[in-house]
Structure formats: C-alpha cells, structure tokens
Specification:
Blueprint: H1 3-13, H2 16-33, H3 46-77, H4 82-85, H5 90-125
Helix pairs in contact: 2-3, 3-5
Length: about 130
C-alpha cells in the first residue's frame, strides 16, 4: 500500500472533512464534560489530541468494518472505487485496523496504569480513609 493509494482511499471513503467533524464531536463532548462542577479544567494538551485521534480512529474502524461487509456489493455497484480496483486491498485495511487497535490497547493500558497509581495515592492520603 503506497501513501498515494491510501490518500486516494481516504479522500474517497473517509474524507478529511469527516475527520474534522469527528474532531468536533470530541470537542463538543469535552466542552460539555468541563461544565460539570469539579471537572478538570486543565488546558489543552496531549491527552486531548489523543482523544481527537481516538475518535477519528473509532469512526475509521467502522468504515473498515463496512468495507468488509459490503465489498462484494460495492464491486458490482461501484467498480471504480479505490478498494474495488485493487489499489488498496481488504487485507491492507485489515492490517491498518489492527495497528489502530493495538494503539487503542496500549493507550487503554496506559490509562489503566495511571488510574491505578492515582487511586493508590488517593487511598493513602484520603481524609475519608475507612479502617
């Protein structure tokens, strides 16, 4: 898979404007979540960029699932598409989805580790410590 073929696929089936709209979804949820009393009001940082990336990746994953589901029908109805012409293959999309899934897992494990450390520290310093 060349970058030019991947870019052609993305333009055709997952256009940049969609990616921007998925980023807006994340930003909207983040803005609403910050209105809750006591919510984190930290400035924009790496975690927020990760959230934008995860939101876009989630919807890309859905696109890949749909491509697998509809491949035969799309080959009949849309033979000119990048995937149907073979410039990108289902196997390549599957590999890209696996790479994204691996990043989800690593990110989740990192979040779990950070949460476990925070909970451990909080339980040692809490005023509500139950004995």
């Amino acid at each position: 898979m060349t970058l030019s073929n991947l870019w052609a696929y993305l333009r055709e089936r997952f256009p940049p404007v969609n990616m921007a709209l998925f980023a807006v979804i994340f930003l909207t949820v983040r803005a609403v979540a910050r209105t809750v009393p006591g919510a984190d009001t930290a400035p924009w940082g790496v975690a927020e960029w990760g959230g934008v990336g995860a939101t876009i990746a989630f919807f890309f994953h859905l696109r890949v699932f749909d491509e697998h589901k509809d491949f035969a029908l799309d080959a009949l109805n849309h033979p000119q598409r990048v995937l149907q012409t073979g410039r990108i293959t289902l196997g390549q999309l599957r590999g890209l989805a696996r790479l994204i899934r691996a990043s989800y897992i690593c990110s989740s494990l990192r979040c779990f580790a950070v949460s476990a450390i925070c909970i451990s520290r909080a339980s040692r310093t809490s005023y509500c410590h139950v004995e």
